[in-house]
Amino acid sequence: MAGAGSEAVIGQIIALAGNLIAQSPQAEIAGIGVGAPGPLDPKAGIVIAPPTLAGWHDVPLIDILGQHFGLPVRLENDANAAALGEWRFGAGRGSGSLVFVTVSTGIGGGVVADGHIYHGRRGLAAEIGHMTITGEGDRCFCGAIGCFEAVASGTALGRRATRLTAAGDGSQLRRLSNDGDVSARHVVEAAQAGDANALELIEAEARWLGIGFTNLLHLYSPDLIVMGGGLSNGFDLLAPSIAAIVQQRAMPAYRDVPIVRAELGDRAGLIGAASLILWEGEPGLALAMAQDDKDSGATADARERGRSPD
Ligand SMILES: [Zn+2]
Fold first, then answer.
1. What span, in angstroms and rounded, lies between the C-alpha atoms of 127 and 103?
2. Which pTM does this prediction carry?
3. How far does residue 34's CA lie from ligand 1's centre (Å)?
4. Does 92-262 match 6-81+276-307 at the fold level?
5. CATH architecture of 92-262
6. pLDDT in tens, 1-49
7. How much distance in Å is there from the Cα of 265 to the middle of ligand 1?
8. Where are the domains positioned within the chain?
9. Interval between CA 141 and ligand 1 midpoint (Å)
10. Angle at the Cα of 157 (from 270 to 273), degrees rounded to 5?
11. CATH of domain 6-81+276-307
């Protein structure tokens, strides 16, 4: 579907959303929240030109969906949507500021600063995966050397594991991969079983993550860092070494910030995108959300306010 162009994808979105609406005739629908790959302009509602989707150039997604369904539509980049999901309903509930980092094929993230998603110029802030954290290593798909993503993503971990071993060497990593390329998932699995190679790779991975997270602590001073993405399946293995690196590298005032695993898994982006319609765009409410903690009464109130046609 990603290569099919914007019209085919939007046609699919409209068909799926139409089915959902038809299945729930009694539902009172407040609007539509959309998480999409960046870069995009959340205020104008325009998907600018995501590198992962062919044929999308300045697509006015909010206008298209809004006209079709006659409902309010809000748009957010997918990493920011996942950050919102974890902040409002997951590991970051009740915090005022958090950094969400998703570590899987690439590295993405979103920053909640003082109760609001931090957008920056043209909505392009917090491109965490492309901060430079070393001067060497493999070239990132963005063209630069030493991006956080190029050294610390699940892809980078798999590549290191593949280079460390060889097909037919009888290692646990190659047994798990059936002698093909080793993936991050294989490394986590082998490390959980105590394999020495895998544990060494996890140690190196945790070092890169610890360096990146230390930068995020110094830049944003969040109440917590939430790590999601496929590699968070190995969070328990990674966490002690990440913490050790942060203790070494962060200035003392930042060392006690919790680094925790995401709670919503694959659903963080969906939940966060849906929640856009409940709170975004109503001044003050996002901050009120940050303070409402786990009080479901206040959440229901906010939902009611989100629905009212003002
Ligand atoms: Zn890069």
1. 13
2. 0.85
3. 25
4. yes
5. 2-Layer Sandwich (3.30)
6. 777 889 999 999 999 999 999 999 898 999 999 999 888 888 889 998 8
7. 24
8. 6-81+276-307, 92-262
9. 6
10. 10
11. 3.30.420.40
Catalytic residues: 78
- Separation between Cα atoms, residue 307 and residue 309, nearest integer Å: 6
Picking from 79-88, 198-207, 292-301, which range would have the lowest pLDDT averaged per residue? 292-301
Distance from residue 149's CA to the centre of ligand 1 (Å): 6
- How much distance in Å is there from the Cα of 140 to the middle of ligand 1? 5
